[in-house]
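thought: fold this chain, then report.
action: predict
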Amino acid sequence: MANALTTFNAEYWANEMQATYSKENVARALVSETLASQLVDGTRINRPYRSALKATTYTKGTDISVYNDLSGVNEYLDIDTTPLIAFYIDDIDVIENKWDMATIYARDAGRLLNNIIDQAIFAEYSNAYSYVAAQDLGGSGTGAAAVTVSNISNLFTTASRNLDKYNRGAQGRFAVVGPRLREILSLAVSGRETMFGDKVGMNGYIGSRFGFDVYFSNNIPFSSTIVTSGIPTDGQTFIVDGVTFTWEAHGTNCNAAGEVDIGTSEDEAYANLVLAINGTTAATTSTYYDVSADDRETLTNGGISASYTSHALVISGYGDVVINESDTSNVTSVTTTSYPLFGVKGSIDLVIEKEPSVDFVRDPDRLGRNVFAWTRYGKKTFTKEKKGLVYAKVDVSDWV
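observation:
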């Protein structure tokens, strides 16, 4: 018998599309947005600071000869960043699609814009006046420190000491940690009879500890330096946050997701890998084949970017990112540092001129609408506020 009845099989559509999962944004709870009310138009708000006074000793009956020369230095915050997400929805698709794709994509765009702002705020860690390094956590030198259950309390107390040193009050202190540090912190306090320890042990809640309001974020900045020493080997892999890039022999064409041409030299190979990671240059079979849409979403949400100069591949972004190179014979070292942030709330100023929102504009030449999701903002850590921020250099090179 050879029946062929599959033509009559029924097919159904689920009522809901697959969910998309976004990072929770917390950074705006830590900044000051008071300047926004003062910038009613224009693109710049000035905020100068004055010179410090010095005291001298006065001798009775003598002329005062030393006066303070008063001066000031101007600083300003510019509204200079306008992230834009644009797409088009045809009227025919509006009629025939099962779902309202314009609304769904507009919601996705709003989440992405908020994520961009979150990352921009946490990038201000580089303007912090002080930092916690290996020498503060039982090691030596000013490099990155390995954080463990036994020394994580030192991470907080050192950050606290740096804030105390510069007369930053005890009120409004915050700490922002990623998944790994949250895990270590949970293990460190799980057996203690404290409210924080109990809450972490039961449900993963982040509360107050060591005088800090502790926040969890998947947008902790990181930077990784990969020291290269030769041309990669065909078939070996390079993995960034779970996204796999596979080296492909030169001249055989890249035709599978994530394949990267090794070129004819080390420099050419890693230049192609930079193109593949950044995804900003149209892929060709002679350079790279783009990763899957899901993997590209991972890299985009992580704000991950790469650059390469003479034996040094630098990858940066946000989150607890693991980087692996299977061809260790051509990689001298992989050093990855995470930068959790501590400080006093309000030390970073943020002005959002236009909140993330979506504009629907009829296309003059088509039956449909152009959709523009955008925001406009500026951020700044002013000189006098930099001492209210501390970042940590956390060695995460051995994360797997």
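thought: worth noting. Confidence is low (pLDDT under 50) at residues 197-205.
final: tokens above.
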